[in-house]
Design goal:
Elements (H helix, E strand, L loop, with lengths): L1 H21 L12 H24 L5 H14 L6 E2 L2 H11 L6 H11 L7 E2 L1 H18 L1 H11 L6 E2 L1 H10 L9 H11 L9 E2 H30 L3 H7 L3 H11 L6 E2 L1 H10 L7 H18 L5 E2 H30 L7 E2 H10 L7 H14 L6 E2 L1 H29 L4 H14 L9 H10 L2 E3 L1 H11 L9 H24 L9 H4 L10 E3 L2
Antiparallel strand pairs: 1-2, 3-4, 5-6, 7-8, 9-10
Helix pairs in contact: 3-4, 5-6, 6-10, 7-8, 7-10, 8-9, 9-10, 15-18, 17-18, 19-20, 19-22, 21-22
Length: 533
């Protein structure tokens, strides 16, 4: 009976609770979304959590090749697998060898944030290095996501949100992360794409593509670092010289080898001068030209009569030219530095540095120049502090001047290729242009152009030359810069070919084109050109 009474009490309690629940204000609350939307949000959060776990797993240093490279990179700077003293600079160098190198300001800040977790520890081991690398991989991928998105938009024109493997390959080609078919770079790109996750239709998302891009970027960086060390070992370059030229070493070496056509490992004096010109060490007046000639002659004499100038000797030339140029600029740069260093802190911020660059006429005029100058500022500002000392500013001013000339040379070489002029011919034409540009203003008049033709042993009548000059001198100044000079020479080449064709059509003998044709007689073309020999 007691139990029955107790059961009745419980039923009454439940009924009362039910009435209370029915009358609750909870029923009057209006949710901002429907049940379907709420469930979709829950599933999205669950997928994001799963994706975070998956990304963390994919960033791990666990593959055999990853582990081998990590061990090689770590052991190069730390003698023990465990128990090494923590050294920030050595960790940064080891990460760069592994393929993770912070070059821009936001990359340096992210890497510094990761490494700050280890600064209080006295000891640093291989496991710590792998943990740093794994976290850095994820952060670098996030930093580079916008540039990947920009490249993605150029391929995903229909805004589908997913691409087939062939579309991902086109994107990698646009980012210069894939080589031609059959190349090792192409094989690596195909392997990276094959590892990506696809949807039911075999399509790849933008988020997945970011993994392939970051993987190939890190591989490219690791390969470049290995090649730099190989060059150092091959030529027994001292560590100080190696660090001084490391950011330019591959570019300098590749151009050196391109000019070394007989693969002797050395260049003659004229070839070295051509290479110096490509890298911004162009004599600005007769005095600097004589100084460079004497320096090269000394090196050639030291090497021996038939030895030529080797790559390490070429680096020595570059260093001496840089030191001289910097000594000439030091007083002007120092004056400007002291003017802007109003608090006498001994350093300037980036805004003040940019003001000095503008006063020195080194401000960028194109997007390419702007990107290169920004890169050089980051190279000089190694710690990412955004503050430059006088010595750093002087180095940066010198390097920016060199880089601007390099960009100009690159544009000139591309223009020459478009005009059908071989690289060797472009070098010869630049050499003639520099010899005749005695004032160093970067332009030639009509008389100097005629002398250039004579130096090249090209024959053209005065009337024919005047006709071509009117075509290429668009601004009608009577002066030709090197770009216009290249265009003129390409037209002279066309006239030479036309003259030869006319001679063949008229069944002339096989000797050089007759003076009457060269002078324009009988050709009706206003003066034809010939090239002797």
């Amino acid at each position: 009976a007691a139990a029955g009474e107790g059961g009745g009490d419980r039923r009454g309690s439940v009924e009362a609770s039910g009435r209370l629940y029915e009358n609750s204000v909870l029923w009057d609350l209006k949710l901002s979304s429907d049940k379907h939307s709420r469930m979709r949000r829950v599933n999205t959060r669950r997928k994001e959590a799963d994706r975070d776990d998956n990304e963390s797993y994919r960033d791990r240093v666990s593959k055999r090749q990853d582990l081998e490279l990590a061990q090689e990179s770590f052991s190069r700077y730390f003698p023990y697998k465990q128990g090494n003293l923590f050294d920030l600079n050595l960790v940064i160098e080891a990460l760069a060898d592994f393929g993770i190198k912070a070059t821009m300001r936001h990359e340096k800040l992210q890497l510094a944030d990761i490494l700050s977790q280890y600064e209080d520890r006295q000891l640093f081991g291989f496991g710590d290095f792998c943990s740093v690398a794994e976290e850095a991989r994820g952060r670098m991928r996030q930093i580079h996501s916008f540039s990947v998105y920009q490249a993605w938009k150029q391929v995903d024109l229909e805004d589908e949100g997913a691409l087939p493997p062939s579309g991902i390959m086109r994107m990698l080609e646009d980012l210069h992360l894939s080589g031609p078919g059959g190349s090792h770079e192409r094989f690596l790109a195909e392997a990276a794409i094959a590892e990506l996750q696809t949807d039911d239709l075999g399509q790849i998302s933008l988020h997945e593509a970011e993994f392939a891009v970051e993987q190939l970027r890190q591989h490219e960086q690791a390969v470049a670092r290995r090649r730099e060390r190989d060059i150092q070992s091959k030529y027994k370059i001292s560590e100080s010289t190696f660090q001084e030229f490391r950011s330019q070493l591959l570019n300098l070496y590749n151009n050196f080898c391109n000019l070394d056509e007989d693969q002797s490992g050395a260049l003659d004096e004229q070839e070295v001068q051509d290479l110096l010109s490509e890298f911004g060490f162009e004599p600005k007046d007769d005095a600097s030209r004589v100084r460079t000639d004497l320096m090269l002659k000394e090196l050639a004499d030291e090497a021996g009569e038939d030895e030529g100038i080797t790559f390490p000797a070429f680096l020595s030339v570059v260093r001496r030219l840089r030191e001289f140029d910097m000594s000439c600029k030091e007083e002007e740069v120092r004056t400007m530095f002291e003017t802007f260093d109003t608090d006498r802190s001994g350093s300037l911020n980036i805004k003040e540095v940019c003001s000095i660059l503008m006063r020195l006429g080194l401000q960028p005029t194109t997007v390419m120049e702007q990107e290169n100058i920004a890169q050089l500022i980051e190279e000089v500002d190694k710690d990412g502090s955004g503050q430059l000392s006088l010595e750093e500013l002087l180095t940066m001013v010198q390097r920016i001047g060199e880089r601007l000339v390099q960009i100009q040379r690159q544009c000139e070489n591309e223009q020459a290729e478009m005009l059908g002029l071989p690289r060797r011919m472009t070098t010869i034409l630049r050499r003639a242009f520099q010899v005749l540009d005695a004032s160093g203003n970067g332009a030639l008049g009509v008389s100097e152009v005629e002398r250039a033709l004579a130096l090249l042993n090209w024959r053209m009548s005065h009337s024919g030359l005047q006709r071509l000059l009117k075509e290429v001198d668009v601004d009608q100044t009577g002066q030709l810069d090197f770009m216009e000079f290249l265009l003129l020479m390409s037209k002279v080449e066309e006239d030479i070919k036309t003259a030869r064709k006319m001679a063949a059509d008229d069944q002339l003998d096989s000797s050089p084109v007759s003076p009457s044709v060269a002078a324009g007689g009988g050709g009706g073309g206003g003066g034809r050109a010939t090239r002797a020999g």
